[in-house]
Amino acid sequence: QKAKLSPACEAFCDQLIAAFPKMGDAYYYRGHVRTHLKNPAGAKADYEQALKLGTNFPDEARAGTRESGDR
Fold it and tell me: Residue 1: pLDDT above 90?
């Protein structure tokens, strides 16, 4: 069974970004959550910031940026 992401997950990512504003992975994670919460504009911005700062998931972030822009 697949877990559902909730707005609480986004709030957790907000806290993570507040604590570590230069950590690209935090933006990637929030972008992933926002994608599942049907917030494509927010997801795209987060994926772009993740790529700008550097992330361990560059391919996924680039794919997320393209997918979010298509919606």
Answer: no
